[in-house]
Design brief:
The chain contains 18 helices and no strands. With 309 residues, the protein is mostly helical. The chain starts with a helix and ends with a helix.
């Protein structure tokens, strides 16, 4: 198989008409078997300088997910073959990180950490690398991700959010104290840190720390946060905590929260914890709003339909 000839037939070095090149690349899967396609895609990845063509190639590679693609993907992420106009390849490299994550190869962690820790790097690339580290699942990435989450001088709060989510995916208990500290120090602030707190709560929920009082108290305190979505996330995390106080704490939200969507989520959480009885209590209780009663009646109807099935 002559890779240079195939590249020439696809007009790979002709950047004037990227859409035509991409179509020729896509047509290759009607001619070549999987193993040869991988070799072609990997080779093309080292030749092309067109961001559009590179994006298409990465998508092709990601569909097959062959381990041999890791090296050219890492070279592209680290810009080893591209010296000019690096800003034009930001989205290419971000997509590269996602494809690398899907290969689930821990040998990629060092390169991903290099990009993550480089504060001069574009935030989109760093964000994709943080997510990739969580998806690969190597706990060597825990400490660097914690540093990103804790870094209050980090310009991109989106990066801190993604790092928090990655820590939840990794499930390492070293992340507990730093994550809880963010909830404690940012308590009551409804601003650019709102989404960060949402991600932190989701991460703590994934860690499933049933007997950690500090975590439970931090989640409980989040139930009075100004953001309704944070309160909803906290309800879900408390529901999953298996803490003996969970039912009483969530029931307080059901009775006292001013937001109907929060109350609805509290009702669903309580139904998951105690079953049908909470639906009857809400449907027949004078202290609950008509909207919440309607929700309870609807859930009772679904419950009875399931019983009859």
């Amino acid at each position: 198989m002559d890779l240079d000839l195939i590249a020439k037939e696809c007009n790979l070095t002709d950047e004037s008409d990227a859409s035509s090149v991409i179509q020729k690349i896509l047509d290759l899967d009607t001619v070549y078997e999987r193993d040869n396609l991988v070799k072609i895609y990997n080779y093309f990845l080292t030749l092309s300088k067109s961001s559009d063509v590179l994006m298409a190639l990465i998508q092709c590679i990601d569909r097959i997910r062959d381990k041999s693609s890791l090296e050219p993907l890492l070279d592209l992420l680290l810009m080893k073959n591209i010296n000019d106009n690096k800003d034009a390849y930001i989205n290419v490299r971000a997509l590269c990180a996602r494809a690398i994550a899907n290969l689930k190869d821990t040998s990629a962690v060092t390169a991903l950490l290099y990009c993550l820790n480089n504060k001069d790097e574009n935030y989109k690339v760093r964000l994709s690398c943080a997510d990739a580290l969580g998806r690969i699942g190597d706990r060597y990435a825990v400490a660097p991700l914690i540093e990103v989450v804790q870094d209050e001088e980090e310009k991109s709060v989106y990066l801190r959010e993604t790092a928090a989510s990655a820590l939840g995916m990794l499930g390492d208990l070293r992340a507990v104290d730093p994550l809880v500290s963010i909830l404690e120090t940012q308590k009551g602030i409804w601003d650019k840190f709102t989404f960060l707190k949402e991600r932190v709560i989701e991460a703590l929920g994934k860690l499933r720390l049933d007997n950690n009082d500090r975590v439970f108290n931090a989640l409980k305190n989040s139930l009075v946060d100004e953001s309704p979505q944070i309160r909803i996330n906290a309800i879900e995390a408390i529901m999953d905590s298996e803490n003996p106080q969970a039912v009483d704490v969530i029931k307080t939200c059901l009775l006292e929260d001013k937001n109907e969507e929060v109350k609805k989520n509290a009702l669903i959480a309580l139904y998951n914890l105690v079953g049908r009885e909470i639906l009857d209590e809400v449907a027949n209780g004078s202290e609950f709003s008509d909207k919440l009663k309607f929700e309870a009646v609807s859930m009772i109807s679904e419950y009875e339909d399931e019983e009859d099935a």
